[in-house]
Design goal:
The protein is an all-alpha fold and 129 residues long. It has helices spanning 18-33, 42-45, 47-67, 79-83, 85-124. It has 5 helices and no strands.
Length: 129
């Protein structure tokens, strides 16, 4: 039995959430590889923010894709893989355009947040010396 909303979305193969998810996993690996001691670099200190933003956005998008029937709970989990090579090509193209664009936007917002918080800490005299 197909998902009730799957029929109107036939031919749309979304997997854009996998790009920020992979970025979040890579950022988490970098964060865990860094020493635990205090670091003077504001971006390194705030790497947890980036991980949370990327994981959070990916989670919400995955929920939306599950609701629309683009992800299933049986292998293969992405419906595009089940539908054939043309669908996989469309999915990869969508990941390369929308997924990368979302990741770049989240990264830019994180950079702005770190810059703003660092400037506010310096102004307040809270920055590490």
């Amino acid at each position: 039995m197909s998902h009730p909303r799957q029929d109107y979305r036939k031919g749309i193969h979304m997997a854009c959430f996998t790009v920020p998810l992979a970025t979040a996993a890579a950022a988490s690996a970098v964060k865990s590889a860094l020493p635990r001691r205090s670091c003077a670099n504001a971006f390194v200190k705030r790497l947890g923010w980036l991980c949370k933003m990327m994981f959070g956005g990916s989670f919400l998008l995955a929920i939306e894709h599950i609701y629309h029937g683009e992800i299933t709970f049986e292998p293969p989990f992405l419906t595009a893989v089940r539908e054939g090579p043309e669908a996989v090509n469309a999915m990869l193209r969508e990941m390369a355009t929308r997924g990368v664009a979302m990741t770049v936007l989240i990264f830019a917002v994180w950079v702005a947040m770190v810059a703003f918080s660092s400037a506010a800490e310096r102004k307040a005299g809270l920055a590490d010396v």
